[in-house]
Amino acid sequence: MAQTHIELNRTGDKMPLVGFGCWKVEDSDCEETIYNAIKAGYRLIDGAAVYANEVGVGRGINKAIKEGIVKREDLFVVTKLWNTYHQKDHIRPAFDRSLKDMGLDYIDLYLIHFPVPIKYVDPAVQYPGDWIEEGNTDILYERSPIHVCWGEMEKLVDDKVARNIGVSNFNVMALLDLFTYCRYKPATLQVELHPYLQQKRLVEWVQKQGVAVTAYSSFGPASYVTLNEEGKTAKPLLTHESVQDIATKHGKSPAQILLRWSIQRNVAVIPKSMNQERMKSNLDIFEWSLEQGDVDALNKLEMGARFNDTVSYGFDLPLFD
């Protein structure tokens, strides 16, 4: 039987290697989309406060539970702390808001979305806040150090409302710093990862530290066509000749090839599709494998091309430099 889960540090919880990503799913569509994803076999649901669809995500989850398709303990629900809630007194209320919006009693994995503490915005004014506050032209940072933020994240574990905690968009230096003071090591690191941006050294080092890696944007520029110039101009991975040749060889879709490339690195993936047949296809990546020649061909596509880049959005924040 092919490995379908990663065992997380500290808890030993089994995180599915393939989950369903909720980014860019409209809240109005979310209930039915998440419900269909669970019916298709997805057991990991990856969301975030900033996706502005947690109410719909929760409705889809609870509809599937109510109908007996799954039990709550069968699911692995992920959400994320947004930048405007890093201050010590704002972390638990932000977490509780996500719990309430989703109608859940606990979260399986709660992540710091970005290592970027931005000035607090009252949810009554705007939820969950934006990178740049209305009326300003620059990001307004606040003095909320990660070690204080992480201490509050750890309290969520102590209070048994978050089973695991982790980080997203952190680099090695940020992780090294966190390791010097944490009581609970991050269970996972979530980063952009695809053949155009393979981050080989980062992935291997993080995995050696006992931290699982999850890839977002496994299809490269596909999700960024409407967001930045890089997404518009980069050759789509799904139609790249090398990817299509390997897909034809194996009788699989290009999406399956790209997802399989990641899980053969023991890296989890969180693809999104609104199409039920593609939902099922994206799950069908365990009973076959890529040959070394296929992997070598995909590895040659490395370009260092980062599409989820704060600078490309016009922010004066070279976060990944």
TrEMBL record:
- Which InterPro entries does this entry report, sorted A to Z? AKR, Aldo/ket_reductase_CS, NAD(P)_OxRdtase_dom_sf, NADP_OxRdtase_dom
Q: Which intervals hold domain NADP-dependent oxidoreductase?
A: 20-301
For this chain, one GO molecular function annotation is: oxidoreductase activity
Do you know which Gene3D superfamilies this protein is assigned to?
Answer: NADP-dependent oxidoreductase domain
Decide whether keyword Oxidoreductase is in the record. yes
Ranges annotated as spanning the membrane: none
Q: Where is the active site?
A: 51 (proton donor)
Is Oxidoreductase tagged as a keyword?
A: yes
- Please name the PROSITE patterns in this protein's record: ALDOKETO_REDUCTASE_1, ALDOKETO_REDUCTASE_2, ALDOKETO_REDUCTASE_3
Site annotation (Lowers pKa of active site Tyr) points to 80
For the ligand (substrate), the binding residues are 113
Pfam families to which the protein is assigned, alphabetical? Aldo_ket_red (PF00248)
Q: Which UniProt keywords apply?
A: Oxidoreductase
Family that this chain belongs to: Belongs to the aldo/keto reductase family.
Protein name from the UniProt record: Xylose reductase
What organism is listed for this UniProt entry? Absidia repens
